[in-house]
């Protein structure tokens, strides 16, 4: 049975951009289960699956509905144990939480503010109104103000990637010789940036950039097929 | 057969302090293999096991000699597969590298400079001469200068622990419901600080402090038996 993946889109339905939705899409592809992507603009998220207060990503697998990217990965691992593993055992499942929290603090911590105006520019008009209102309330400043310091903050951001860079000096993926869900957790954030913005987060010769290229090529280029923002 | 663990000590042979040696000691205890600790001051490290250029930790297990804390953990996992796992599978083994690199960048990055003078104060006289010379060359400043900004840097350090703190909000150990080698990697750095210095790295109500207490109690209080520096 085909799994439905509801994921966030802007004006162009072919360019899903949410980091958390990309984690779910990569996890589904990794498990090699058939899935269909349901483009979902911000202002329709609350209506999917007849639910109030739903968030994306959300999957429907037969009669089961699962939200939250990490929970989706856990669900897939448990439900499809014979497919390629997303965690590489219980230790990897536990440590993927650390990777998730690091990504949230360091990568989202920078991208989240830096790219707000770029995200907004990708949205359809009704979603722009929602996005500006909700994000400006959350950040306590305009979208443009939130991104104003991104050039000054870039060096510090790149330095904070050192644990990832140093890991990639000993192995091609965070998950080891091949990717695991931990890779998709970090990748999701960079793919988000890549799809919505031409702002260059990484030096071309950064080993993190080479890893990103490896991720873009995975699963028949699932993520690479969406062109980078010009 | 009893495994020998060579580990760094200062003037008091009963107070091993090296973070990397503590990782190895905790890994040996976790595997529940008998081991004997061989106190080794800085100026005798190069002479152990008749080797030139040896570093600690170093273990001898029968006719095998293994150095480097991560390599020791890998060796123990492979050699004693029926004992409690240090990695929880291949995914955990790979992601432990990420935890290691994060610890190196964030925790050692702060402690390394902040506690130099405290470390020096723990050493016997010949080791002090070696330590001061080698560390002042490495840092390009005196031991005292390297630690001068530690009060100003403390808030930033604590903020950088957020990925660890947030992980511990969902599970008691980085390794999940119980500790794995990834916990010992981070713990080693905090134990280092605890043994050599009374400088308070953590707020008492920090969830990281509670995790540290859990680690100190592990393996019959192996690490907790060494009293904190007064």
TrEMBL record, chains A, B:
The protein's matches in PROSITE patterns, at most eight in alphabetical order, are given as: GST_NTER
Q: Which domain of life is it from?
A: Bacteria
Name the keywords, alphabetized.
Transferase
Q: Report domain GST N-terminal positions.
A: 8-84
Cross-referenced CDD domains:
GST_C_etherase_LigE (cd03202), GST_N_etherase_LigE (cd03038)
Name of the protein described by the UniProt record: Glutathione S-transferase family protein
Which lineage is the organism of this entry classified under, starting from the top rank?
Bacteria, Pseudomonadati, Pseudomonadota, Alphaproteobacteria, Hyphomicrobiales
GO MF entries: transferase activity
Where are the annotated coiled coils located?
none
Q: Which Pfam families does the entry mention? A: GST_C_7, GST_N_3
Q: Which organism is it from?
A: Nitratireductor arenosus
